[in-house]
Amino acid sequence: MPSEARPADASDVACIARLLHTACGERSVEAYERAVHARIAEEDGGTLIAGEATLSWALDGGALFLYDLVGEGETLAAAVTLAERLASRRLAAVLAATLYEDDPMIGHLRMLGFEPDWSEPEAAGGRLRTLVGLVRIIS
Questions:
Q1: Domain holding 133: CATH number?
Q2: Is the pTM value of this prediction over 0.90?
Q3: Which of 5, 37, 41, 119 is deepest in the core (most CB within 10 A)?
Q4: pLDDT per position as a tens digit, 58-83
Q5: Which range marks the domain in which residue 124 is found?
Q6: What proportions of the chain, in percent to the nearest 5, are helix, strand and coil?
Q7: β strands within the chain, DSSP E
Q8: Is-contact 50 71, C-beta < 8 A?
């Protein structure tokens, strides 16, 4: 049975915060909860959930930017498909994501039709890392 993706609401905040904390662990669960609450309230942004996958989005010009991506396989595909529908309704031309080159999410997004668009070095955490921009044209 295919996974159903949907916009997150207040009842999803704790679950999404746990998913983000488990996947990233950069902040406390409470900090993720505050961030997700704020995203859900945004007009040109939000958070989607599909099973154990989640992503946040923000519209900027002709691009719908995806960030805080968690998940893989069918559930991630469902969330990205819903993001593409949202982007199309908002007249965006592309889905875009920026990740570090060693992030396993790059492989998941490549399997979903995202292509590299740009890369640039960045000093982060006392070391030089490369940021990679991925895009997927909205069909």
A1: 3.40.630.30
A2: yes
A3: 5
A4: 999 999 999 999 999 999 999 999 99
A5: 6-137
A6: 35, 35, 25
A7: 6-7, 45-50, 53-60, 63-70, 94-100, 115-124, 127-137
A8: yes
